[in-house]
Amino acid sequence: MSNNKPRAKISPANPKVGDVIEVKTLVSHVMETGLRKDKNGQVIPRNIIHSFKATFEGEPVFSGDLYPGISANPYIAFHMKVTKPGALELTWVDDAGETLSTTVSVTVG
């Protein structure tokens, strides 16, 4: 997972204080359930993204647990109210213990 760059977008791009924005995220990940076998009949080990969290200036704004029913390349969208300009940090953690993060700058227009 570490070589994948997540994508994140906020809408509107330049919100005002008090606006509610939509945050859309997409990360490339196989989300392997551990139920399939490879061409040699060996079980492919489970490796899914099991948690996602979003913090704005260090304060949690959204979090979620993901399960094997989530498809590959999970897309997550949520809304949040803009209280000030700052950094929105998005973090994904998978079963292999790998963590992937990206930061979106929220500027107030």
TrEMBL record:
Signal peptide: none
Domain Sulphur oxidation protein SoxZ: 13-104
Domain of life from the UniProt record: Bacteria
InterPro entries: Ig-like_fold, Ig_E-set, SoxZ, SoxZ_dom
Any matching Pfam family: SoxZ
Protein name (Swiss-Prot/TrEMBL): Sulfur compound chelating protein SoxZ
Organism from which the protein derives: Filomicrobium insigne
